[in-house]
Amino acid sequence: MLGAAAPGEQGREVTVVEVLDRAAARIPEDLGDRPAVEARVRHTLGETYFALAQFDSAVEQLTRAVELNTEVLGDSDAATATTQRSLASAYRDRGELEIAESRLRDLLALETSIGAGEERLAQTLDHLGTALILQGRYP
């Protein structure tokens, strides 16, 4: 990723978002035949975009990571659930609280049905609670 920035070729400084955008553009070519690796890279890119408040790009990367994780690991895997929670957070911070809530309720139902464990359930409940509070739905 960092090597792709090539600031010397451009004659200017390169932003982190530009580096991320270039890395994201190369994923299909570089990792298209390794879906598990692609999912992890997209999750990391999504989290980084999220940290930079680039929520549209975060949603794009995390959505694809969820799809890949579901395909490779299944929808009940811990990595898939972690990416689902990250995606819901990106929707939440993008202002799409109803989508975030819906995704988290679906994840909570799945985790409850498979006995995912207290830690995973607590994480999902925490994210869901935040989405509800931001909607003014305190009860």
The 3D shape can be described as flat
Oligomer: single chain
Q: What's the average pLDDT?
A: 90
The total count of helices amounts to 7
DSSP summary, beta strand count: 0
Question: In whole angstroms, how far apart are the ends?
Answer: 45 Å
Instruction: Give the H and E element order.
Output: HHHHHHH
Question: How much of the polypeptide forms β-strand, as a percent range?
Answer: under 5%
Category from helices, strands and their pairing: mainly alpha
Rg over alpha carbons: 17 Å
Largest sheet: none
Enumerate the spans where pLDDT stays under 50 for 5 or more consecutive residues.
none
Helix fraction, binned, reads over 70%
Descriptive overview:
With 139 residues, the protein is mostly helical. It has 7 helices and no strands. It is flat, with a radius of gyration of 17 Å. 31% of the residues are buried.
Secondary-structure map with pairings?
Layout: H1 7-10, H2 16-31, H3 35-51, H4 55-73, H5 78-93, H6 97-114, H7 118-134
Question: Which terms summarize this structure?
Answer:
139 residues, mainly alpha, 7 helices, 0% strand
Give a short synopsis of this structure.
The chain is mainly α and 139 residues long. It has helices at residues 7-10, 16-31, 35-51, 55-73, 78-93, 97-114, 118-134.
